[in-house]
Design a protein that fits this description.
Layout: H1 10-14, E1 22-33, E2 38-48, E3 51-55, E4 72-76, E5 80-87, E6 94-101, E7 104-109, H2 114-126, H3 128-191, H4 198-206, H5 216-238, E8 241-243, H6 244-255, H7 262-269, E9 279-284, E10 287-292, H8 297-303, H9 317-324, H10 328-340, E11 344-349, E12 352-357
C-alpha cells in the first residue's frame, strides 16, 4: 500500500488547510489504485472541501498524528482532472466513480455513490482551496504594502521633524549670532585704533568684514575694493548696469554671510570715483544702481535690446529681461534710455505695455 502515490502518513493526513471543512463521511467504501491494481476494501471516505480521505480510522474527524496503525489514502481535489461515474451492465445504478488525477487514476466503489459523486463535483466546482490562496496572497500583499507605506510615512515624518527643528533652532541661533557679531565688529571698529591689535584685524578679515583698518574711510575703501572686483565680474553678464540690491545679494552670498548691509554697499560704491575705479553709483527713478563708466547706451542697445525688439512684434519688459538674463528693474532702465534716444517706442495696452523698434527714425 505504501507504494501508492496516494498513500500518506497520519501526520500528513492530519494537516488541514485553514478553511478546510469535512462535508460528509461514507462507510464501507473501496479504494482502487489503477496503476498498482491495488484495491483496499472496507474504508471510510471523508469528503472535505479540499480532499478525499480514505482510511480505516474509526473516527476520521479526530485524526491524530500518532495514529500510525491506520492507513490513509488522500486525493487532493485540486489535482483531479476529470471525474466520471460508471453504471452496471444491467442497472442504471452507479457502480463506481473514476477519478483522473495528476498522480494517476483511481476508482471508488461502494453502495449509493450518488451522494458522494455530487459532493465531490460540488467541491471541485467551488475550488475553495484557490479562494483561500487568493485571500492569503491578497492579505499578504496588502499587509506588505501597508507596512511599507507606514514605514515610509514614519521616515518622512522623522525627516520633517528634524528639518523643522533644525530651521527653528538653527536659523534663530544663526541670525542671533550674526547680529551679535556685527555689533561686536562695529564696536571694535569704533573703539580700537588702527594697528593696535593685529590679531583682531585678522579675525575681522576672516569673518567677511575686511576691517583691517579701524578708521571709517579706510574700512570703506577696503570694502569698495572688494565690491568693485565683484561688479567687474558681473558687468559683462549684466550689460554694464547692476542694481544695488543685486550687488548686496551676490556680495554676501559669496561670503556666506549677511554682515555687510545695503547701506555699507552704497557707501563703498560712493568711493569708486575717488579710488579711480571704472564704476559709479547712479540713480534711475529712485533706484540706486552701480554702473560701469565704460557703459555706452548706444553700443549696449545694439548688443542687447536691439537684437530682440522688432518692428512688428512687441515685447514686454518681463519678456525682454528673461531673454537678456537680467532683472526686470535693469531692463526697464535700459528701455527708458532707448526711448529717450528715440530708438524704441511704447504701446500701452490693456493687457500690458509692449516695446517696439521705432520705425520712423529709420525711414
Amino acid at each position: 500500500m505504501e507504494q501508492s502515490l496516494f498513500f500518506l502518513s497520519a501526520e500528513m493526513t492530519a494537516m488541514k488547510a485553514f478553511n478546510e471543512k469535512t462535508q460528509s463521511i461514507y462507510q464501507n467504501m473501496q479504494f482502487l489504485d489503477k496503476k498498482l491494481k491495488m484495491k483496499v476494501p472496507k474504508l471510510s471516505l471523508a469528503i472535505t472541501t479540499h480532499r478525499l480521505i480514505f482510511t480505516n480510522h474509526t473516527n476520521i474527524d479526530q485524526l491524530n498524528v500518532n495514529d500510525v496503525k491506520f492507513v490513509y489514502f488522500v486525493i487532493p481535489l485540486q489535482h483531479v482532472k476529470s471525474i466520471q461515474s460508471k453504471t452496471g451492465f444491467l442497472s442504471s445504478k452507479i457502480d463506481h466513480i473514476n477519478l483522473e488525477t495528476n498522480l494517476g487514476e483511481v476508482a471508488i466503489f461502494g453502495d449509493n455513490l450518488e451522494g458522494p459523486l455530487l459532493l465531490i463535483k460540488g467541491s471541485i466546482e467551488k475550488k475553495e482551496w484557490l479562494q483561500k490562496q487568493e485571500q492569503q496572497q491578497t492579505s499578504s500583499v496588502y499587509c506588505g504594502m501597508k507596512s511599507e507605506i507606514m514605514k515610509k510615512e514614519k521616515q518622512t515624518q522623522q525627516t520633517i521633524d528634524t528639518v523643522q527643528s533644525t530651521f527653528k533652532g538653527g536659523f534663530e541661533e544663526l541670525f542671533k549670532n550674526a547680529t551679535e557679531l556685527k555689533e561686536v565688529s562695529q564696536y571694535i571698529k569704533q573703539n580700537i585704533k588702527k594697528g593696535e591689535n593685529n590679531e583682531i584685524d585678522e579675525i575681522l578679515s576672516k569673518i567677511g568684514q575686511s576691517r583691517l583698518d579701524k578708521s571709517e574711510d579706510l574700512f570703506y575703501e577696503k570694502l569698495a575694493e572688494q565690491v568693485y572686483k565683484l561688479c567687474a565680474e558681473l558687468f559683462p553678464k549684466m550689460g554694464g548696469i547692476i542694481s544695488l540690491l543685486d550687488v548686496y545679494y551676490y556680495f554676501n552670498k559669496r561670503r556666506n554671510s549677511s554682515l555687510v548691509s545695503p547701506e555699507e554697499i552704497l557707501k563703498a560704491g560712493l568711493q569708486f570715483q575717488k579710488l579711480n575705479y571704472q564704476a559709479k553709483v547712479e540713480r534711475y527713478d529712485g533706484i540706486s544702481v552701480i554702473e560701469s563708466t565704460q557703459y555706452n547706451s548706444d553700443k549696449d542697445y545694439e548688443n542687447t535690446l536691439g537684437k530682440h525688439i522688432s518692428y512688428e512684434i512687441g515685447l514686454t519688459a518681463e519678456q525682454l529681461a528673461k531673454k537678456l538674463g537680467i532683472s526686470v528693474m535693469i531692463c526697464k532702465i535700459k528701455l527708458k534710455n532707448a526711448i529717450n534716444q528715440g530708438k524704441v517706442c511704447v504701446d500701452n495696452r490693456i493687457e500690458g505695455t509692449r516695446y517696439f523698434k521705432n520705425l520712423i527714425i529709420n525711414i
